[in-house]
Amino acid sequence: MSNEATIASWILRNALGTLNETEKQELEAWRQSSDANRLLYEQYSNAAQIAQEFRLRTERNKRISRHLEAFVHQPTTTRGRIHFMQKWKWIAASVVFVMGTGAYFLMENRKDPPSAPASVKAEQIQPGRDGAILTLADGSRLLLDSVQNGIVALQDGVMAKVVNGALVYEGNGNKMQYNTMSTPRGRQYQLTLPDGTKVWLNAASSVKYPTVFIGGERHVQVSGEAYFEVARNSSQPFRVTVSNGMKIDVLGTSFNVNAYQDDDNSYATLIDGAVRVTAAPSGNSTILKPAQQAAVLTTGSVLTVNSKVDMEKVLAWKNGIFNFENVSLEYVMKEIERWYDIKVVYKNGIPDIKFWGKITKDVPLSGILIALEKTRVHFNLENDSTLVVLP
Q1: What pLDDT is recorded for position 358?
Q2: What local confidence, expressed as pLDDT, does residue 108 receive?
């Protein structure tokens, strides 16, 4: 009769589809020979299921391997950089590790197998997608998530319609009414304003704008993060204001605004053209050149300019990428909260960890956690929407 280690191996291999017919028959005969064997078979099968989940997840995420190279650096505990993920090759080893430790746990302790890690549970939490809420001047709200094409509103001669999943305004109205487009967490959307200016909204963001631009300026209000490609009109300057009092004046240009309420600063980054950034209430202002970034403290009292900006990182969100090059764990978690619509809490403070890496934003939450779990940071996923960061 085969020993217990061999039986455990057969059960795990059976779950992975690598057991031959002779071994299957001997395994079944062993299982039927006693009640104790049947109970042990069930216990081993639970551990095998965890291994199987890892294998299936690996197959689903092979396409990610072309895009993913990530590194982590822990300055307070580790010397140098730790290579914690490169093209997902280590996942195969993770499956073997789970099989081995699962069988050992059951043989030595005869207790319930360990529960699936947070990365397995997080497989069900899908990434964000295109979608937004349009609030009209009369307060009515329209959900744009599933609308691909068609007219969604008519307002005094101005038509708002969805064209290939983006909202576009057309027409010549003579009454200024304000609409607001907002993206909940886990959503992003594209908008073309009445003057032809294009706006991309990141998750948990909003832009308030008139249905027609009348008067000496074009004025919109932003919270969260947005990318603008402003239609040129020298006789009607374009102005953006954000919640902390930052003002951006342009004639025709491309720039990014990042002004989330839970950050200490708001940022304006110029792609091309020229903009003037003003901090209120201090009134301090500066004119940016391409590839420069202005930062305004949330109090509006301090304005600084950075001329060494990583433009790829600034625009990563618009290009469907998480760019975690030289960023803190807190930065990573804020990005995860907004994109996956979850809440992140820290068990014992925020670990002092720096990350280097990039990953596409179209992966389930598990794709991010697999990478992070290769560091000294671990997680529990509670109530399917709260991610607890463990020490």
Answers
A1: 86
A2: 39
pLDDT of 264 reads 87
Other beta carbons within 10 Å of 371: 24
Record the tokens describing residue 73, joined without a space.
Answer: 């650096």
Six token digits for residue 254:
């491309």
Please check whether residues 116 and 196 belong to one and the same domain. Answer: no
d(CA 336, CA 331): 9
Q: What is the pTM of this model?
A: 0.73
Q: Which residues of the chain have pLDDT under 50?
A: 1, 54, 62-116
In the beta sheet, which residues pair with residue 270?
A: 255
The CA-atom distances, in angstroms, between 215 and each of 172, 218, 219, 232, 353 are: 14, 8, 10, 16, 50
216 three-state secondary structure: coil
Q: Tell me the per-residue pLDDT of 315-338, one tens digit each, with 9 for 90 and over.
A: 999 999 999 989 999 999 999 999
What is the pairing mode between strands 178-183 and 133-135? Answer: antiparallel
* 8 A C-beta contact, residue 51 and residue 95: yes
Instruction: Please give the residue range of the domain that contains residue 179.
Output: 129-314
Q: Is residue 320 part of a domain?
A: no
Q: Could you tell me how many residues make up the chain?
A: 391
- b/e map of 60-98 (b: 16 or more CB within 10 Å)? ebeebeeebebbbebeeeeeeeeebbeebeebeebbeeb
- Would you state the pLDDT for residue 236? 93
Residues 6+ apart with CB under 8 A from 352: 74, 75, 76, 328, 329
**Structural domain count of the chain:** 2
Please give the Cα distance from 315 to 125 (Å, whole number).
24
Please check whether residue 373 is in contact with residue 118, taking contact to mean a CB–CB distance below 8 angstroms: yes
Do 75 and 198 have their domain in common?
no
* One-letter identity of residue 168: V
pLDDT at residue 146, rounded to an integer: 85
Q: What is the pLDDT of residues 353-389, one digit of tens each?
A: 888 888 889 888 988 888 787 777 888 888 878 999 9
